[in-house]
Amino acid sequence: MTEPNLQIAGLAARFRQIAETRMRGLPLLHPGLAVETLGFAWQKIGPDAQAGWLGILITPWCMNLVWLPGDDQPRPAEGCVREYRIGEERLDFASFDDEVCGHYQSCSLFSPMFDFIDAQAARDTATQVLSLLRRPPAAAPADPGRRRLLFGLLENRA
Asked: Domain holding 26: CATH number?
């Protein structure tokens, strides 16, 4: 298995490099924010329960939910958008293959970042997002069975 800490650190390093080069001086950068990763944990997502690392990337220009698939998981082609079910939510992730940090999939949460007063506010929001996505699913109502369901419907009609 790819060492997750190296992959996550590589993702952060790559986006720091982007912040210092391609994004430098652009008016959409929040001056109080820096590139950081937050809350990456091993998780299964989607209908086929793909396993990988899910967490948040905060930058001065965006906050993204990032999926780093496990070594044995499929990697959609770059630019491909795929919907995953995470917790109670359905989210669209775009695939990227970067020469520095490798394959990752990203779902935009916020951009630009001016709604956040400071880095702590961005971190707090990221933590809340992850908490909501990792919340256990609500218990499904008990299956009444076809006979009970039918009789219940008939009783309600009377």
From this structure: 3.30.1460.40
In this prediction, residues 27-45 reach a mean pLDDT of: 95
Q: Domain tally for the chain?
A: 1
**What's the token pair of residue 101?**
């940090």
- CA 2 – CA 139 distance, rounded (Å): 35
61 contact partners, CB below 8 Å, separation of at least 6: 19, 23, 26, 28, 29, 30, 111, 112, 113
pLDDT in tens, 68-84: 987 777 777 788 999 98
* 129 phi/psi in degrees, rounded to 5: -60, -50
Q: Token pair 């076809």 is at which residue?
A: 146
Q: Are 122 and 115 in contact (CB under 8 A)?
A: no
The pTM assigned to this predicted structure is 0.82
Residue 152 is assigned to a structural domain of this protein: no
Split at pLDDT 50, 70, 90, the class of 1 is very low
Q: How many residues does the chain have?
A: 158
